[in-house]
Design goal:
The complex is a heterodimer of chains A (about 350) and B (about 240).
Chain A (H helix, E strand, L loop, with lengths): L2 H32 L6 H16 L6 H19 L6 H25 L6 H24 L7 H23 L13 E4 L2 E4 H23 L1 H11 L1 H6 L4 H23 L9 H15 L5 H21 L4 H7 L1 H11 L9
Helix pairs in contact in A: 1-7, 1-8, 1-10, 1-11, 1-12, 2-5, 2-6, 2-10, 2-11, 3-4, 3-5, 4-5, 5-10, 7-8, 7-10, 8-10, 11-12, 12-13
Chain B lengths: L4 E10 L2 E11 L4 E6 L5 H9 L5 E6 L2 E2 L5 H6 L2 E4 L11 H8 L5 H14 L1 H5 L10 H14 L4 E5 L7 H16 L3 E6 L2 H7 L2 E6 L2 E7 H6 L1 H7 L11
Parallel strand pairs in B: 3-8, 3-9, 6-7, 7-8
Antiparallel strand pairs in B: 1-2, 1-4, 4-5, 9-10
Classes of the chains: A mainly alpha (about 350), B alpha/beta (about 240).
Family (chain A): Belongs to the binding-protein-dependent transport system permease family. LivHM subfamily.
Protein name (chain A): Branched-chain amino acid ABC transporter permease
Pfam family, one (chain A): BPD_transp_2
């Protein structure tokens, strides 16, 4: 192997690793706040990517109708759980979020969708659609069982993943899609050629990490989310609604997933079920970070990307095997290092 | 004057075991009320149920609002606040962040004045404001838990065993501050095993045994009651058994 190939592989690995880092961060965020291991993270990636790709061809993706449907269910749930103390303000708020927001989105999408719609509008629409789906997914599937064990939440997460993947097949078909690149510019540095797309990947990853750091460190909402992660009862006692924290966590995670999808769909063809594998790689990074550490997760994600790049060069048949095997020594080490932890009872 | 907190004929159970049976209690504005009793009498259970952490059967109203349909978060918004026995601080966040989150439900301007007041009550917290809550001493953690609760400008502060496991000098400090809260217009419902100290600062007291109130009245009268003195204050009168 010569230096050029080495650099190429590193570059490729870092680009993919940056995406895994974003997904890993979202997983850590969601787990810390809600204790949900977000298996459907991969579906947020595909939904974001493929909705964007369909919008780019001028079609209206089925995801926007799904958002409306889920909003209706979420609204019904809100009414049902508040039936004993139904207040006008509460109903109005719920209607605005669960009905007006997705219906508005649907209307805008139908109005503007077309082959000549500017890329920025398509990106914004894809993001908002997936954000709505993420928000409602928490409301429908996880909020009613928020107090159950991690295992029950995990089973629900697997169910959501399967359901969303099936719906993905309905919306996008079995054929893969590609989306237009954010920028066709390219920079050459020595033997390496950086496409505008890969630069956007780096830039957005860094922006998201910095943004999350600022959000958690300096805003009231961010601190409230951290507080919920650290001590759920303590958070409730100061009046932080854990359900709201969960919704915000899911909102952020789904937007991060959608962004990742929009970033990679110009580089690789995505199918309705590709997201799962991509999400799993973010999951490996998150596990290496112990599902708690953001910086460790980001570093591990880059590592996963690099290992993947090199193994696809040397033994492409075993690419996935090698990447997923990474998790074994980590789990062994972690189980040796950490004392047995019993799940908290509450 | 109508009661701030009024609880009537409350029953609380853990499964089939009834931990609190037919308890009624009132706390008026600007009043310190204490519930004393042995370990396991149901004092903590009662406070947790009033806060909404546990479900209760019976009537509970705060500031004229029925508490039954309200979640913990809504009860906080009505001006009810609990400092739980285990304090439930945000251990990996610093003192200032903990306090800031205590004011989660109120406006920024009010929060700023609340912070001034809390720092005036607990100067120690100001010195340690950048320290992580988990690294504070037990007494400082108790101060922080109280400070965090006060940041939300509650009308009634419920304190669960604030003196538990603390050095006597710190206990004295904490009880002095509880006394000052009344002057600042905050009512206090205090659950304590340290009956002597609690009765000294309280206006009224309830004595709890095995899930029921067996005695209630002015703190002075309770303190001089022979049975209470024998059971909880460590005095023994002629011819009385300690139990």
């Amino acid at each position: 192997m010569n230096t050029t190939i080495l650099l190429f592989l590193l570059q490729d690995g870092i680009t993919n690793g940056a995406i895994y880092a974003l997904l890993g961060l979202a997983l850590v965020l969601v787990f810390a706040v809600t204790r949900v291991i977000l298996i459907p993270q991969g579906e947020f990636v595909t939904y974001g990517a493929l909705s964007y790709a369909m919008l780019a061809t001028g079609q209206v993706p089925g995801t926007v109708q799904l958002a409306v449907g889920m909003g209706l269910v979420a609204f019904a749930l809100d009414l049902f759980f508040a039936r004993k103390a139904l207040r006008a303000r509460l109903v109005a708020r719920s209607a605005a979020l669960n009905i007006a927001f997705p219906v508005g989105l649907l209307a805008v999408t139908y109005k503007v969708a077309g082959p000549t719609t500017p890329m920025a509008v398509n990106i914004a629409l894809a993001l908002l659609i997936v954000a709505a789906i993420g928000l409602f997914l928490y409301r429908i599937a996880f909020q009613p069982i928020a107090h159950t064990s991690v295992l029950v939440l995990l089973i629900a997460a697997v169910g959501c993943h399967l359901a969303l993947q099936g719906l993905g097949l309905v919306f996008f078909g079995a054929e893969g899609l590609r989306g237009p690149a954010l920028s066709s510019a390219a920079v050459t540095a020595g033997p390496l050629r950086f496409t505008g797309q890969s630069l956007a990947v780096y830039g957005l990853t860094i922006a998201f990490i910095v943004g999350l750091w600022l959000f958690f460190g300096y805003t009231k909402t961010g601190k409230a989310l951290r507080a919920t992660a650290v001590n759920r009862l303590g958070a409730r006692l100061v009046g932080i609604r854990t359900s709201l924290s969960g919704q915000i966590a899911f909102l952020l995670a789904s937007m991060i997933g959608a962004i990742s999808g929009i970033l990679i769909v110009p580089i690789t063809t995505l199918y309705y079920d590709t997201g799962f594998l991509i999400g799993l790689k973010g999951f490996i990074a998150a596990i290496i970070g112990g599902l708690v550490s953001y910086p460790l997760t980001a570093i591990a994600a880059i590592l996963v990307g690099i290992v993947e790049a090199f193994s696809s060069f040397y033994a492409s048949n075993f690419k996935e095997v090698i990447v997923f095997t990474l998790i074994l020594p980590v789990l062994v080490l972690r189980s040796l290092a950490a004392p047995a932890v019993e799940e908290e009872k509450d | 004057m109508s009661a701030l907190l009024s609880v009537a004929d409350v029953h609380i159970s853990y499964g089939k075991v009834e931990a609190v049976r037919g308890v009624s209690l009132e706390v008026a504005g600007n009043e310190i009320v204490t519930i004393i009793g042995a370990n396991g009498a149901g004092k903590t259970t009662l406070l947790n149920a009033i806060m909404g952490i546990l479900p209760l059967k019976g009537r509970a109203a705060f500031a004229g609002t029925d508490l039954a349909p309200l979640d913990i978060e809504d009860r906080v918004a009505t001006g009810l606040s609990l400092v739980p026995e285990h304090r439930e601080l945000f251990a990996s966040m610093n003192v200032e962040d903990n306090l800031e989150l205590g004011a989660f439900r109120i406006s920024k301007a009010t929060a700023a004045t609340s912070l001034e007041k809390v720092y005036a009550l607990f100067p120690r917290l100001k010195e340690r404001r950048k320290q992580l809550a988990g690294t504070l001493s037990g007494g400082e953690q108790q101060m922080l838990a109280m400070g965090r609760a006060l940041m939300g400008a509650p009308k009634l502060l419920m304190l669960d065993e604030p003196s538990l496991g603390l050095a006597p000098i710190i206990v004295a400090d904490i009880f002095r501050i509880v006394g000052e809260l009344r002057a600042a217009g905050v009512s206090v419902l205090l659950v304590e095993q340290n009956a002597q100290a609690a009765l000294r600062i309280a206006d009224r007291a309830y004595v709890m045994e095995l899930g029921e109130f067996v005695l209630s009245g002015a703190a002075k009268d309770i303190a001089s009651n022979e049975r209470v003195a024998a059971s909880y204050l460590g005095f023994q009168h002629e011819g009385e058994s300690a139990i």
